[in-house]
Design goal:
The chain contains seven helices and ten strands. The protein has helices at about 15-25, 60-65, 85-105, 120-125, 160-170, 190-205, 210-215; strands spanning about 1-10, 30-35, 45-50, 50-55, 70, 110, 130-135, 155, 175-180, 205-210. The strands form three sheets. Strands 1, 2, 5, 8, 9 and 10 form a six-stranded parallel beta sheet that branches. A two-stranded antiparallel sheet has the order 3-4. The chain is globular, with a radius of gyration of 17 Å. The two termini are about 20 Å apart.
Length: about 220
């Protein structure tokens, strides 16, 4: 038996297509959002390869991510270890409150922008009411975490060893946790590949999808 968790960052327009795949195959997923970067209309973020990356409007968030787990990725995605105390407090506390106001449910998880954190950041997360936090280093056997504020995924969704890691963790009756960004899906072949992965996991009788809250709480 393997418990499967997936986490996707940044709140992008391309998440809509990704979520359609998840819904088709009854897959759970966690989405890590920066509420301070969403505006009244969709907004341009950056370029990746030859494509433009666009953020969803703030008014779309509740509908697009309905039924999925939401975690804070801070307000504006700074390096949290490089900013003043007052800004750090705002990035952590205001993002939680804003996301809870949008989704009308508790937001208990946090994702570190740029994987940057230290004891001060973790302590502020605890004081602000978060229960866990995620980085992006890869630890194949990530569960149970020694510290719920230092959870790391097993691999990236594009890892060439994705299925081997999945099979090894299944043999261990453990947790397989992968992550990514939907903007990384830059071709129809890549979209087909991620759907094959999601469908393959959903069809595996020895696998079950989980939200991170369900494994940590």
């Amino acid at each position: 038996m393997v418990k499967v968790v997936q986490s996707w960052d940044d709140g992008l327009v391309s998440d809509i297509r990704l979520i359609e795949i998840f819904r088709r195959h009854h897959a759970k997923a966690t989405f890590c959002l920066n509420p301070g970067l969403h505006h009244d209309t969709r907004s341009f973020g950056w370029r990746h390869e030859d494509s433009e990356v666009w953020r969803l409007s703030i008014h779309e968030l509740c509908h697009v991510y309905e039924g999925f787990e939401i975690c804070s990725h801070s307000m504006t995605h700074p390096c949290l270890t490089d900013i003043p105390y007052d800004q750090l407090l705002w990035e952590i506390k205001a993002s939680k409150q804003m996301l809870e106001d949008i989704f009308h449910k508790p937001v208990l998880g946090f994702c570190y922008p740029f994987n940057a954190y230290n004891d001060s950041v973790k302590n502020m997360l605890r004081l602000s009411g978060y229960k866990w936090a995620r980085g992006n280093q890869h630890y194949e056997e990530a569960f149970p975490p020694a510290d719920p504020f230092e959870i790391h995924p097993s691999c990236h969704f594009l890892d060439h060893d994705f299925w081997n890691k999945y099979d090894r963790l299944k043999c261990m009756n453990s947790v397989f946790f992968f992550w990514g960004h939907s903007y990384e899906l830059i071709s129809e072949g890549m979209w087909h590949n991620i759907e094959e992965k999601i469908n393959g996991i959903s069809l595996d009788p020895d696998a079950e999808w989980f939200f991170l809250d369900e494994l940590i709480m």
